[in-house]
Specification:
The chain is flat and about 150 Å long. Strands 19, 21, 22, 25, 26, 27, 30 and 31 form an eight-stranded mixed β-sheet that branches. Strands 1, 3, 6, 7 and 8 form a five-stranded mixed β-sheet that branches. Strands 9, 11, 13, 14 and 15 form a five-stranded antiparallel β-sheet that branches. It has nine helices and 48 strands. Strand 16 and strand 17 form a beta hairpin. By secondary structure, it is an alpha+beta fold. It has four domains: about 5-85, Immunoglobulin-like (Sandwich); about 95-190, Immunoglobulin-like, CATH 2.60.40.10; about 205-210 and about 255-390, Immunoglobulins (Immunoglobulin-like, Sandwich), CATH 2.60.40.10; about 430-560 and about 600-730, Phosphorylase Kinase, domain 1 (2-Layer Sandwich). One of its GO terms (molecular function) is transmembrane receptor protein tyrosine kinase activity.
Length: about 750
């Protein structure tokens, strides 16, 4: 029989082998195997209490028997299996899965794991969390570490969707026989991401030319910034040997200016941003430059001239002395010039080297040497003049000077001509104007550059695949493209993309951005070419709009002339298009097609189609009017057709070369569509809702003439005033149908009023 005995390490353990027969003597302890006792084992044998092993250690574990002699014969007790329970030396060491401070945004998941290791099972873990926090706690689990007899205990805590009330200190407590230890994590939950720049060194700094300077910015941000960069005078800097940019752990950025040049003073700005916020900090760097004498002149007509440069602006002083001397100003008896001298700044830099000029009227007197001294922050530069020389009068009109003046005049003439040509060159601008307020015919327009731009329109430019060019002009082009994932993740959509040419100026880039803002401000309508997205970062600006497969209305009508079928309307024909709820005949024939649109339309054209085009354009213009928007260039060339012969109003000016388009006539420095303009627009530059109505009337004539040019009898700009003689209108614009006749009658009644 084997009896078990468990003893804590370091304590005494007693084997209860009591002597029941007084004849037994020489009581001792032996291993069951008969081998020697473990080293260091000390025991005390007592017949009435048994054998006590002192200060038990792990090495003493094993099987033992009590042995003695009775009648000179050996006797043994039953076997005892001694087990030793290890005791930890210190309180438990806790390991947490997160750092001391955790920052999250509302809705994110928070998971925290706490674990510890102990020499035995006598250990426990518990959580202490903010009272308001709602959490889910995993059950504790333990396991024996491979290759050792230690036990690992761990427990987890998770919050699936954190809230701001979950902020606070999360504490894990571990308890063993030696005591209690704890570890904490501070959780901060914010409503949205943030970015803050910590206050650091001064924002205005000075550095001597040739020395190096380090600009450092430290920030706190969540999430980590997606992009950080430095700019110098609004130009982004690259990491070079002269501008060393270092980023430490995404939260500290250094810009080291190596051996600063005198021209490198200015404003250096650090910028960082992520999807929630952005921040920037600017440093003003002044470069202290030693003074240098740039030029000297004289004496000429009793006057000397001295030009010096440096930063801060050098102070110029004049000294007289007798030769031979290297420096007049170093003499104790040097005479400083008492005469008045002029000091003029020749060229100034706000942050670096400046040039200053001083002129002094001199007389020979008893001195023969004059010194010009330029001083800046203790640094000096000088030059010497000999005033004993014979003065040389100015010869203003020498042959060389005359040649220089003639060349300058000729160059100035060419510059004026080039400037005039540049001013006369048409500038790209958006025709649509959004009205802020009006009093009678006095309209106040909203500056489109001040309209907001919603980042929701941003679309990744790498998801665009460009195709054929739909139109090209002097400023840009419109290209058909395929957009992947525009509406949803797995959709493929054919779109039209407006873009500028690489040679576009900043004003034209601003105009395209203004067009984007106006389209997003107006909103969507079935009879407007709607905005679908834009790419404004990471490259040139791209405006993504609906693709209209049949092109513009003007060319569509001209293509369909031979296939036109004229319905018999009669003199009293009337059709209430407002009550029309069904699509047009051509649209019904296409209603079973998919979103993909064939560029070819083989169907015929009839009067009902012309009425439908007129009605749809009217609905689109009514929508623009409701948004306080004036089109200013309504014509068949600016109406596009798409699947189902749906008419959509647009501004196609970007992709049209108006210098070669006969519809636009040069007046001043602008090209205007004079045949579509109302009298007040043409002669007084007044654009109103009513002027759009006038243009709509011209558009009706284009539609019902199947794409003819208005006023065919008017050719040159000298006949502009005759455009508004109604008799001439009636003569030049032949009666295409009752719709055009009605338009002329309405115009006559309006003018009579």
């Amino acid at each position: 029989m084997v009896d078990g005995l468990l003893v804590r390490e370091g304590e005494d353990g007693t084997l209860p082998c009591l002597v029941t027969d007084p004849a037994v003597n020489h009581l001792s302890l032996l291993p069951c195997t008969g081998s020697a006792l473990p080293a260091g084992l000390i025991y005390i044998a007592h017949p009435q209490r048994g054998i006590t092993i002192r200060n038990v250690s792990k090495a003493f574990e094993g099987c033992y028997v009590c042995a003695g002699e009775m009648d000179e014969k050996p006797v043994k007790s039953s076997q005892y299996n001694l087990g030793v329970r290890l005791v930890p030396e210190t309180v438990p060491v806790i390991s947490l899965s997160r750092i001391e401070n955790v920052i999250l945004i509302q809705g994110q998941e928070f998971v925290l794991k706490c674990s510890t290791i102990n020499i035995n099972h006598d250990i426990s873990l518990s959580w202490s969390i903010p009272s308001e926090a709602v959490r889910s706690t995993n059950l504790q689990k333990s396991n024996i570490l491979p290759g050792s007899r230690e036990y690992k205990l761990s427990t987890g805590l998770s919050i699936e969707s954190v809230k701001m009330i979950d902020s606070g200190v999360f504490r894990c407590d571990a308890r063993n026989e030696k005591g209690v230890s704890m570890a904490t994590v501070n959780l901060e939950v914010y409503e949205h991401g943030f970015m803050n720049l910590t206050e650091g060194e001064e924002s205005v700094m000075e550095v001597r030319e040739g020395e190096s300077l380090t600009l450092s910015v430290e920030m706190t941000s969540y999430p980590r910034p997606t992009e950080v960069y430095w700019t110098y005078n609004n130009q982004q800097l690259k990491n070079t040997s002269e501008h060393v940019i270092t980023l430490h752990n995404q939260y500290i950025s250094d810009l080291r200016l190596v051996r600063v040049h005198g021209s490198e003073g200015g404003i250096y700005t650090f910028s960082a941003y992520h999807m929630y916020a952005s921040a920037n900090r600017s440093f003003t760097v002044h470069v202290i430059c030693k003074p240098v004498i740039v030029s000297q002149e004289g004496p000429v007509d009793g006057q000397v001239r001295c030009v010096a440069s440096g930063y801060p602006v050098p102070k110029i002083s004049w000294y007289y002395c007798e030769p031979p001397h290297a420096r007049c100003s170093h003499l104790l008896n040097a005479t400083q010039a008492d005469e008045e001298f002029t000091l003029v700044t020749v060229s100034g830099a706000e942050f670096g080297r400046n040039e200053v000029e001083s002129r002094l009227n001199v007389t020979k007197g008893k001195f023969h040497t004059l010194e010009c001294v330029a001083t800046t922050q203790g640094e000096q530069a000088y030059t010497l003049f000999s005033i004993s020389e014979r003065t040389v009068p100015h010869k203003l009109f020498t042959p060389l000077l005359s040649g220089v003046v003639s060349t300058a005049v000729l160059l100035s003439f060419f510059l004026v001509v080039l400037l005039y040509k540049y001013i006369q060159k048409p500038k790209y601008e958006i025709h649509w104007k959004v009205i802020d307020s009006f009093d009678g015919n006095n309209y106040t327009y909203i500056d489109p550059t001040q309209l907001p731009y919603d980042p929701k329109w941003e679309f990744p430019r790498e998801r665009l695949r460009f195709g054929k060019i739909l139109g090209s002009g002097a400023f840009g082009k419109v290209v058909a493209a395929t957009a992947y994932g525009l509406c949803s993740a797995d959709t493929v959509t054919t779109v039209a993309v407006k873009m500028l040419k690489p040679s576009a100026h900043s004003t034209e880039k601003e105009a395209l951005m203004s067009e984007l803002k106006v389209l997003s401000f107006i909103g969507n309508h079935i009879n407007i070419v709607n905005l679908l997205g834009a790419c404004t970062v990471g490259g040139p600006t791209l405006v993504i709009t609906e693709y209209c497969c049949y092109g513009d209305l003007l060319n569509f009508l001209r293509r369909k002339r031979d296939a036109f079928f004229s319905s018999k309307t009669g003199d009293g024909y009337y059709k209430n298009l407002l009550s029309q709820t069904q699509p047009s005949r051509s649209y019904q024939k296409r209603s079973n097609q998919t979103e993909w649109c064939d560029d070819k339309d083989d169907l015929s054209l009839d009067t009902e189609d012309l009425l439908s085009f007129s009605y749809q354009v009217a609905k689109g213009m009514d929508f623009l009017t409701s948004k306080n928007c004036i089109h200013r260039d309504l014509a068949a060339r600016n109406v596009l057709l798409t699947q189902g012969r749906v008419a959509k109003i647009c501004d196609f000016g970007l992709a049209r070369d108006i210098t070669r388009d006969s519809s636009y006539v040069l007046r001043g420095n602008a090209r205007l569509p004079v045949k579509w303009m109302s009298p007040e627009s043409l002669f007084a530059c007044v654009y109103t809702f009513e002027s759009d109505v006038w243009s709509y009337g011209i558009l009706l004539w284009e539609i019902f003439s199947l794409g003819n040019t208005p006023y065919p009898g008017i050719q040159g700009p000298n006949q502009f005033s005759s455009l508004f003689n109604l008799k001439l209108i009636a003569h030049t614009m032949t009666n295409i149908g009752s719709v055009t006749t009605t338009q002329l009658r309405v115009s006559e009644r309006e003018l009579d009023r």
